[in-house]
Each structure stands twice: as structure tokens, then as C-alpha cells.
Design goal:
The chain folds into two domains: about 230 residues, 3-Layer(aba) Sandwich (Aspartate Aminotransferase, domain 2), CATH 3.40.640.10; about 110 residues, Aspartate Aminotransferase, domain 1, CATH 3.90.1150. Helices cover about 35% and strands about 15% of the residues. The protein starts with 13 loop residues before the first helix and ends in a 5-residue tail after the last helix. The strands form four sheets. The protein has a seven-stranded mixed beta sheet, with helices on both faces. Strands 7-6-12 form a three-stranded antiparallel beta sheet, with no helix packed on it. Strands 10-11 form a two-stranded antiparallel ribbon. It has twelve helices and 14 strands. β4, α6 and β5 form a beta-alpha-beta unit. The protein is globular, with a radius of gyration of 21 Å.
Length: about 375
């Protein structure tokens, strides 16, 4: 062990990132405050235009969160009671919750053990006459294998809603995630690769009708004030958050490259251990929202790192089919073995553009015999 630094190593160092762009952030916030336009002000439209250019899509609609991005997208496709939507059980609860909030039923499909993403080979057997959509999740910043998913969707006339909450800037065969399916959904939660200082989200699409419906849905179902065309939501991206995101968007590519460098360094440091390190599929440009390892002694390892002042996280300890909220689906333990095994073995180590090589070496030494 190196000498204890008496300072915990956090999963993400928000303060360090802010200090690196403090003047730009402060100026952007001040500009909004002085403008007096706090709801759907100019910065929102400007940020939406910048994201369309970045992702290579025609439309981007800022919403209040990544969760709302999923809900509004499904609603825009008319998905509701009696419909089924296929997704993975190894994801954050918001993915499945969005389906249920629309009145539809989540249908789970197990994951690939190496990428942790939905296994395309298992999707088709899960399709029924009620299936309307597929939600692949680009977990940890690694793109799902989209070509076979899109082919299945085309064959069965299904919508594909990409949950790209953890993967802003990731690419699949050179294409930005979010631009491959019929709709892409992003989260700008502070921990994300492109994160604001509160909640925020975005829907991207090439479909003008879907873009229009999402825009109306985020405004309480009103295209014109006080004239509701549908039952909508109060789900607008705040102008201050959009201004912050405009600044951060200028840096996201270099931050993602730094994450990739950190991941490579971790891989090197862990090469002679019995830890399973993340993969990057040939089709993928992984942006390492999380650097997630696997260990059969995960809980012991987490405790050891905690004792050495190193924060870690488990994303996710219990797959969705085993959550109390989804008992109604009657999925039994053992139904999705790869997801269940991952839930017992995964551990995410600290990763952010601000982490130093010295910190990484300290983290690996903190693993002791592992």
C-alpha cells in the first residue's frame, strides 16, 4: 500500500471539473440570469441545435430528465395499455418505469456477459403480437449491438428507442448513439459524461412527427398556450441548465478521450490479476461512463477499497425482474442468468476526466490480494 492520503477518492470529482471551466460556466449562468428568460430561453434552442449537429440528427428536444425523455418518446409513438416493450433487466429502473408509466408492459431479455448490453439473439423469441418497441440500453457507455436490433425491428415493424443516458458521445460503427434507432434518449444528470448541475434530458430523432409530438408533450400537451391537444407533461429543459450544457459540450469529446485513456490505464494495471476488465467490441467506441469490473469476490473487494478511502459503486446489484416493483410480471429467479450473475459480480471504480494516474495506482494497490 502507498501511504494513506487521508482524502477519499470519489467516483466523480464535480468540484475539480467545475474549477477547470469556472469562468465559462459562471459567465453562461450570468447571461441567463440577466436575460430574465428562464424557461425555454434562447440557450435551450441553441443547445438543441448544437446537439443535432453533434449527433447527426434533424431534431433535438430538451426535456426535464432522461426518464422523461423515455416516457415522452414512448408516448409520441402511441405506446400504451396492452402494448409490450422489450428491454434489458440489467439497467437503471427508469428504463422499465418509463414503459409502465405509459401503461405498457416491460418484457425483459437477458444480456451479453461481456458488454452487459441486451443480447440481440434473444430478442426475436420474446416478440409477441403485442410487442410495439425495443429499448436497447447503451450501458456504462458501451453501445449495444444495433445492427441486428434494427434488422429485427424492421422485420417485425417495431420502434427502437435508444436509451443512451450513459453514453453521450459513444459511437456504433462510427455513428453517434441515439442517431441509430427511431429515437434516442439522453440524460444530463450531473454524473453523466455530459452532465448539467441538476436534472436534464433530451430526445433526438430524424422523424418530424415524433419531434413535434415530444415538443408538445413537454409543454403540457399544448402547441399554443392554454390550448391542450393531448395530455402532456411539465418537462422542459431549464435555460440555465442548457447554458451550462452548451459550455460542457465544447469539452465532451476531450473528456471522453480522457476517460478512454484512464480505462486503458486501469486495464494495464489489472492485467495480471483475476479481475475481469471491461471489453470494447469491434463496432464500439466506448466512452466509459463507468469503468466496471467483475469479480466473484465483489463484496469483499468493495469493502477493502472502502477501508482504503476509495469510493466504488454497484450498477446494478439487483436486476429489474427481481425488484419488488416488478413482482407483477411473475419473472422468477434464474429467468435471466447473465443479468443475475452480473448483479453479483460488477463493481464500478472511480472514473472521471479529473482522476490522476497516481490516484489510479493507489486504487489498484488498495485492492490488496485481488
Amino acid at each position: 500500500m502507498t501511504e494513506n492520503k487521508n482524502v477519499r477518492i470519489p467516483m466523480v470529482d464535480f468540484k475539480a471539473q467545475y474549477k477547470s471551466i469556472e469562468k465559462e460556466i459562471d459567465a453562461a449562468i450570468k447571461e441567463v440570469l440577466l436575460s430574465g428568460q428562464y424557461i425555454l430561453g434562447p440557450a435551450v434552442k441553441e443547445f438543441e441545435e448544437q446537439v443535432t449537429a453533434y449527433c447527426g440528427v434533424k431534431y433535438a428536444i430538451g426535456v426535464a430528465s432522461g426518464s422523461d425523455a423515455l416516457i415522452l418518446s414512448l408516448r409520441a409513438f402511441g405506446i400504451g395499455p396492452g402494448d409490450e416493450v422489450i428491454t434489458t433487466p440489467f439497467t437503471f429502473v427508469a428504463t422499465a418505469h418509463a414503459i409502465v408509466h405509459c401503461g405498457a408492459k416491460p418484457v425483459f431479455v437477458d444480456i451479453e456477459p461481456d458488454t452487459f448490453n441486451i443480447n440481440p439473439a434473444l430478442i426475436e423469441p420474446a416478440i409477441t403480437k403485442n410487442t410495439k418497441a425495443i429499448i436497447p440500453v447503451h450501458l456504462y457507455g458501451h453501445p449495444a449491438n444495433m445492427d441486428p436490433i434494427m434488422e429485427i425491428a424492421k422485420t417485425h415493424n417495431l420502434y427502437v428507442v435508444e436509451d443512451a443516458a450513459q453514453a453521450f458521445g459513444a459511437r456504433y460503427n462510427g455513428k453517434q448513439v441515439g442517431s441509430i434507432g427511431h429515437v434516442g434518449c439522453f440524460s444530463f444528470f450531473p454524473t453523466k459524461n455530459l452532465g448539467c448541475y441538476g436534472d436534464g434530458g433530451m430526445v433526438v430523432t430524424d422523424n418530424p412527427d415524433i419531434a413535434d409530438k415530444v415538443d408538445i408533450l413537454r409543454r403540457q400537451g399544448c402547441r399554443e398556450k392554454y390550448h391542450a391537444e393531448m395530455i402532456g407533461y411539465n418537462s422542459r429543459l431549464d435555460t440555465i441548465q442548457a447554458a451550462i450544457l452548451k459550455v460542457k459540450l465544447r469539452y465532451v469529446d476531450q473528456w471522453n478521450e480522457k476517460r478512454r485513456y484512464i480505462a486503458k490505464k486501469y486495464n494495464e494495471l489489472l492485467s495480471d490479476t483475476n479481475i475481469t476488465t471491461p471489453v470494447e467490441a469491434p463496432y464500439a467506441y466506448h466512452v466509459y461512463h463507468q469503468y466496471t469490473i467483475r469479480s466473484s469476490r465483489r463484496d469483499d473487494l468493495k469493502q477493502l477499497l472502502f477501508e482504503n478511502d476509495i469510493d466504488t459503486s454497484i450498477y446494478y446489484p439487483k436486476p429489474l425482474h427481481l425488484q419488488d416493483a416488478y413482482k407483477c410480471l411473475e419473472n422468477k429467479k434464474g429467468s435471466y442468468p447473465e443479468s443475475e450473475r452480473a448483479g453479483k459480480e460488477v463493481l464500478s471504480l472511480p472514473i472521471s476526466p479529473e482522476i490522476s494516474e497516481m490516484d489510479q495506482e493507489y486504487i489498484i494497490q488498495g485492492m490488496g490480494i485481488f
